Amino acid sequence: MSTPKIIRFKLTNGDTFGIFLDNLNKYPDTFLSKLVTNEGIFHSRTDFDGDCFVLDEHSQIFDSILQFYRYGILELPDRFDSVKQDIIDKYLLPVELVSNQLSSEKIPFYITVHDCQIFGKESGVLTTTGPPVNTISELMECPFSIMSDVYIKTHYMNVVNYLSTKGYIVELWSGHEHATVMMKKMK
C-alpha cells in the first residue's frame, strides 16, 4: 500500500498546513485543487525548501478551508462572517455544499507538530506547530516554555506525548530530516 501524498501550504505569516492530495481531489474545480493540479503553470512551490505552496491568507480562514476539503463543511470563526461569501468565491468552493451548520457528528481538529532547526543549531531543541502555538488552547496550558507564540522550547516528542494526554491521536508520522507528526482530536 502506498503512502498518501501530502500537499503542504505555507502562509506568508510562516504557518504551515498539510492535507492529503486525495482530499483536495474531492473538489477538482476548486482553487486549491486547481493550484496543485496545475503546478508550474500558474504557481509553484516557492518556499525556501521548494516543499510548500505559499499563500497569503489568515491562519484561521485557511484551517477552515482545509477542513472543508476534509469534511465538506465550511465553519469559519464568527469574526469572519462578513467575508464568508468572499472566501467562498476566492477558493471557488461549491456553494451547494458549503454549510454553516455543523452536523451532529464530531469534527476532528488537526495539529501538526514539527521538529525544527533554527540558525544552524541542533534540531530537537525547539518545536513549532500548525496552527500556531498561541491558537491551541491545550498548548497554552502546557508545562513547556513558549517562545514568541511560535516556538515551544522542548523536544517535539514531549509535545506529541503531552497532546496525547489531552485526547489527540497520531494520524501521520513523517520521520524525514525534520520530523513532522500530524495529530487529531475529535471536537
TrEMBL record:
Residues 14-79 form the Potassium channel tetramerisation-type BTB domain. Gene3D superfamilies: Potassium Channel Kv1.1, Chain A. It comes from the Eukaryota. GO terms for biological process: protein homooligomerization. Pfam families: BTB_2 (PF02214). This is Potassium channel tetramerisation-type BTB domain-containing protein. It comes from Didymodactylos carnosus. The lineage of its organism: Eukaryota, Metazoa, Spiralia, Gnathifera, Rotifera.
